[in-house]
Write a structure and sequence with these properties.
alpha/beta; Cobalt-precorrin-4 Transmethylase, domain 1; Rossmann fold; five-stranded parallel sheet; four-stranded parallel sheet; 11 helices; 37% helix
Length: 337
């Protein structure tokens, strides 16, 4: 094996279908309605995406009440509680719901199990927008379980009527460990009808697991409030990478990290545009890491249609309502070699 410096580049990486849909929804809304278009919370958890959309005329707000009456508001990919829809209606807002369809699926599961009077144990991170939105569907039935160490504190009304659901962007391994401990405590615990952790989160973690033991350093491109990006660093360190860092931009990389490093792993969270990964690869090449080898864990081709209300208005205006795909792919990796 050659001892020359190299980069292992994860595929898939970057934008998932839900992020793609949400970002394009804001872009199309700005194009169709003109600025300003308001966005409740960050459309996705990525600093670069938010800054770029702000420059185009998007205004990000924390609460629905900050949006002027009658204005257009986009709900973020993380989903919102029913009360938010009610607030928007009271202000006569034109709403575009960019909630990821995979998050919507979890919301529907929560509603259904609550209707059947189950205690719902929602595995997720306290304060995360997705958890707040899902919990809002059935607050009297949902209890948050923030990781394996929280299980001992959990109590339910009837141990025979309990089900677990999860935030879509968690560590697969940690979630399964939480479920294992919950099942020890509540043997009748039911599983969700289908996996709640999204395909993109799982695939990006799988690629990192395949690379980790070969990497001296793992660089994950992503923002600190991005749950799935933070998890990628943790997964790398758990599976054999000596050092790992989360960066928003290439210029945040400290050349001191390269000391004694032969192999650098590179990946990105599910809300990261591919241009930011290209910048990291360019910087690595400047430091002698020009040999890029793809590590392919899965192929992804899923695209979600734009929100229905936006598609309707685009069609009426004679404008294009097609989606694009901005995730890092095997083809991208090949072009960089």
């Amino acid at each position: 094996m050659s001892d020359s410096p190299r980069v292992l580049l994860a595929a898939p990486r970057g934008y998932c279908a839900g992020v793609d849909r949400a970002v394009v929804a804001v872009e199309k809304a700005l194009e169709l309605y003109g600025p300003p278009v308001y966005v409740r919370k960050e459309i996705v958890h990525n600093k670069h995406v938010v800054t770029t959309l702000e420059k185009r005329g998007a205004i990000f707000v924390d609460e629905t009440g900050e949006v002027p009456e009658g204005a257009t508001v986009v709900f973020s990919a993380h989903g919102v509680a029913p009360v938010v829809h009610e607030e928007a209606k009271a202000l006569s807002l034109k709403t575009i719901d960019a909630t990821c369809p995979l998050v919507t699926k979890v919301h529907r599961e929560a509603v259904r199990f609550a209707a059947d009077d189950f205690d719902i144990l929602l595995i997720g991170h306290e304060g995360h927008e997705e958890v707040i939105g899902t919990s809002g569907e059935a607050p009297e039935h949902i209890t948050l379980v923030d990781g394996p160490d929280h299980v001992a504190e959990i109590e339910v009304r009837d141990p025979e009527k309990v089900v677990w659901l999860s935030q879509t962007t968690l560590s697969v391994d940690e979630t399964m460990e939480t479920v294992r401990r919950l099942r020890e405590k509540f043997p009748a615990l039911q599983d969700p009808p289908s996996d709640d952790i999204c395909y993109a989160t799982q695939n990006r973690q799988l690629a990192v697991k395949q690379m980790a033991a070969q990497c001296d350093l793992m660089i994950v491109v992503g923002s600190r409030n991005s749950s799935n990006s933070v998890r990628l660093v943790e997964v790398a360190l758990e599976h054999g990478t000596r050092d790992g860092h989360l960066v928003d931009y290439a210029e945040e990389i400290d050349p001191a990290w390269f000391e004694g490093v032969r192999t650098v792993g590179v990946t990105s969270g599910a809300s990261v545009p591919e241009i930011l990964v290209r910048d990291v690869l360019a910087l690595l090449a400047e430091h002698g890491y020009a040999d890029v080898e793809p590590v392919v864990a899965a192929e992804e081709s899923l695209l979600f249609a734009l929100p229905m209300e936006l598609r309707r208005d685009l069609k009426a205006a004679g404008m294009d309502d097609k989606m694009r795909h901005d995730a890092g792919s095997l083809e991208d990796a090949g072009q960089l070699r």
